[in-house]
Amino acid sequence: MHRTFLILLLLVTPITGLHSQTASVLAVSPDKNFQLLRQQGESSDRGEARKVLSLCNKEGKILYQWTSGLGTTTALWSPDGYYVAINDMPGEKGDLLRIFALDPAAPSVTPLRDPDGRKLRREVETRHGSFLSKVDTVTIRASEWKEGRLWCLLTGTFSPKRQASVHVPFHHLWVFKLDGKNTPLLQEEWTLTDPREKSYRDSGR
Question: In the chain, which stretches have pLDDT less than 50?
């Protein structure tokens, strides 16, 4: 009986291991040359569940791969088929945006932008911060491709330095121009306003 149980265990173990590594297709490019796959990753040192994302060619060969925390991932393929913007939650300190250049002929994938929350906050503070206020939180995500450019939504809050408990929401549209494999260029910025949205104060302060 013990021998029979051991044989069954050996037969089941490989199947279970293979199932845990099965990848699901999240998105396919309009020209069918690229696909974004997701599979379960190994837990972090703190025991946090993670996922593995892969950009592959149409045959499933991995061209670029990264690991991130669990969360929703969406892909926006450029109409010309040469770029993809990926919103990958939970992101890196609020920065969800990854941008890749695609070469269907090779095929190949080149990362143009990786999430960097600290760098994003510094850039926002440089453009909008002053000695009177500081940026509390900031998040960026791709919204749409329009006229060959990538439109992104930038949101967050800032606080007057003498009233740290007060938080004022802000919303901007950042428009990136992409040129080959060069770093995306922030070409325009539009300020969005919502008259119904008000500043708020920390409770108990």
Answer: 2, 4-20, 205
Residue 43 backbone phi and psi in degrees, to 5: -65, 155
Cα three-residue angle 80-38-93, rounded to 5 degrees: 85
Q: Is the peptide bond before 90 cis (omega within 30 degrees of 0)?
A: yes
What distance, in Å, lies between the first and last C-alpha atoms of the chain? Answer: 69
Residues 126 and 6: their CA atoms lie apart, in Å, by: 64
Q: Which residue is it, tokens 């600290």?
A: 118
CA distance 69 to 61: 23
| Residue 157 to residue 200: CA distance in whole angstroms | 10
Rounded to two decimals, the pTM is 0.83
Q: Helix H segments across 80-145?
A: 117-128
Do 78 and 142 touch, CB atoms closer than 8 A?
Answer: no
- Token look-up 């892909």 returns 75
Name the H helices within 32-177: 117-128
Angle (CA) 158 175 123, round 5°: 40
Query: Both tokens of residue 32?
Result: 């069918």
Pair of tokens at residue 90:
């939970």
Q: Distance (Å, rounded) from C-alpha 10 to C-alpha 7?
A: 5
